[in-house]
Design goal:
Blueprint: H1 2-13, E1 16-17, E2 23-25, E3 40-41, H2 51-69, H3 76-91, E4 100-101, H4 103-111, E5 137-141, H5 145-153, H6 160-167, E6 172-176, H7 177-182, H8 191-197, E7 202-204
Parallel strand pairs: 4-6
Antiparallel strand pairs: 1-3, 2-7, 5-6
Helix pairs in contact: 2-3, 2-6, 3-5
Length: 205
Amino acid sequence: MLALRAEHESQRTSRTIQTGVAQTCHPANPETCMNMNPRINLTGRDSFLPIDAAADYLAGPILEILKQYHRSDCPEPIRAHYRTVLKWMARDLENFVLPMVSAAAQARADQMGLPDLRQFRWRDQPKKMKDPDRSIFHWEHYTPVSNLVDGLLQIRTPTLETIANILKTARIVWILKEENARLSHRSRKDPALDYRNAGIDLLSS
């Protein structure tokens, strides 16, 4: 039994995703930035569920919220509550997204002796990423939470498919604090354009 357990642990801890040679991708096509290079160690993340799968699970509960939200007799305080619920559901989608990374952020990580940043989550920043006060790197919602919520609320006749399609646009990216300062946070209807105007290049494979 102990031998079998040891073999299982060895297989689990060696789980990785292998990709090709890293290069710079264009923010207008963030899907091309989701592949990871070099090898991304997913140790301890057996339970990770990718956004394409998670969206299908989440679409049902959100559908019911939107049906109630759009009822003509729904009081405004209740609508406000639903908007808050949707906001936090949209923000929490970060747990189902493998982050992208900017070229500048990865270059800084290389200088610090860190591996590919795409294997790290927000909680890893203080210790594993050697950024205790979060002054170097920034966990950025490439697709702003407000974009996701607005997109959901604008669906007048929501379906599981239309809801899931919006959820699947969720994107996260590790960038530098100075890059984050160049981004527009008041309104970002076109994230790709904002990144391009800010001169932020994302890595791809």
